[in-house]
């Protein structure tokens, strides 16, 4: 039987139902958990009543929320959600709380109304005939199953995602760490690899004196047969980040001396010996041949940009350099590039302008977090708006085992900084 369940809070309009947070009984068939977050209590009741009388009534359980406080309370309890339907006012809280594997749909008054940080979310009309709405929800559930099965069958070992920008100081490391964290909390085995010559992440992750990457690079050259055992010995898992990493990084001279062959051996070692689902590579902004190796092995190249003319010009020059220097890989790399605009204020970017100067559609938007101007260790992973945006980005890139949405496209780099 389909149940409407909602938490009761003093400031909300939610209705208490028996069995809230109840454990599933042993031997009971697991019901499909559909969460609905809208302000209108009557809407949730009508939807629940209709589902209860439908063929899905014996398979689906609807949990409704009319306040963000009730939603937050439920999600903090760690209870299962398979699909999240959220009105725009609830999207930030709802989507940030969900694992990338959860199907997330925006309930909108009109299609195409989402802008700013919410732009790009998959939309469903909130007000439409209930049989039609239920059919669309059921179709989306089946499509999610098909994509998940296809991804599991087609995935060839570990996925690699490179995070890059030609301009410094626009949040590349923050983005890479949050991607690693959100993928890890969703259940993936994740490795975060920082290849910047001036790596400051030991301030955030600890282990500044361990020189893990330096020792591993030396072993790969001098004693490659021992490198796998050494990697397993050197890797650490941060209790908050939840992903593995090599503590201490490397000396700048060693990083500058890395050859494409060194880079290839390092990535293949992590792939073959680490048993990882995903490797996030945090790259330096100066592009060289090691970048080519990483880009060619990456299913996604998350290329950060902003509205700043200088940043866009630097990215344009780097893109032209890549096209000119690596013509044999040009089409492959262009298809892998996913432009992500950072430091965005809510409502700052109208939907019709969601394009970078290079003629490629922006795949994601990451918000500006003012508190990070004075960032202290431990604050990086605590921003709810940023978490929500990263979860949406991981969904689009198919980094939870599903099917990626195409980001790149073959084109000629446009002139001008825009």
TrEMBL record:
InterPro entries: P-loop_NTPase. It comes from the Bacteria. This is AAA domain-containing protein.
């Amino acid at each position: 039987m389909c149940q409407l369940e909602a938490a009761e809070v003093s400031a909300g309009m939610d209705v208490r139902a028996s069995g809230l947070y109840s454990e599933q009984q042993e031997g009971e068939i697991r019901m499909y958990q559909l969460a609905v977050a809208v302000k209108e209590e009557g809407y949730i009741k009508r939807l629940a009543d209709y589902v209860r009388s439908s063929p899905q009534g014996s398979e689906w359980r609807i949990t409704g929320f009319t306040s963000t406080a009730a939603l937050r309370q439920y999600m903090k309890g760690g209870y299962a959600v398979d699909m999240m339907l959220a009105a725009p006012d609830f999207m930030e809280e709802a989507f940030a709380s969900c694992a990338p594997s959860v199907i997330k749909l925006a309930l909108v008054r009109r299609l195409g109304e989402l802008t700013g940080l919410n732009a790009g979310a998959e939309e469903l009309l909130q007000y439409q005939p209930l049989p039609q709405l239920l059919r669309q929800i059921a179709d989306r559930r089946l499509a999610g199953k098909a994509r998940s099965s296809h991804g599991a069958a087609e995935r060839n070992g570990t996925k690699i995602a490179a995070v890059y920008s030609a301009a410094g100081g626009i949040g590349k490391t923050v983005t890479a760490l949050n991607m690693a964290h959100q993928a890890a909390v969703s259940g993936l085995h994740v490795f975060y690899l920082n290849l910047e010559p001036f790596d400051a992440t030991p301030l955030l992750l600890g282990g500044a004196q361990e020189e893990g990457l330096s020792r591993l690079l030396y072993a790969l050259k001098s004693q490659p047969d021992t490198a796998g055992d050494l990697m397993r010995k050197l890797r650490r898992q941060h209790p908050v980040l939840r992903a593995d990493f090599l503590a201490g990084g490397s000396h700048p001279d060693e990083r500058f001396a890395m050859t494409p062959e060194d880079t290839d051996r390092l990535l293949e070692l992590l792939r073959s010996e680490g048993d990882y689902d995903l490797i996030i590579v945090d790259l330096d902004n100066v592009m060289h041949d090691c970048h080519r190796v990483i880009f060619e092995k990456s299913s996604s190249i998350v290329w950060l940009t902003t509205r700043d003319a200088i940043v866009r010009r630097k990215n344009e020059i780097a893109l032209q350099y890549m096209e000119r220097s690596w013509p044999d890989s040009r089409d492959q790399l262009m298809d892998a590039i996913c432009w992500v605009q950072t430091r965005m204020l809510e409502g700052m970017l109208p939907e019709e302008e969601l394009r970078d100067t290079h003629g490629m559609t922006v795949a994601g938007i990451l918000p500006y977090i003012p508190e990070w101007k004075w960032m202290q260790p431990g604050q990086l992973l605590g921003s709810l708006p940023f978490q929500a945006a990263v979860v949406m980005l991981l969904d689009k890139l198919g980094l939870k085992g599903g099917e990626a949405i195409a980001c790149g496209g073959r084109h000629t780099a446009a002139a001008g900084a825009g």
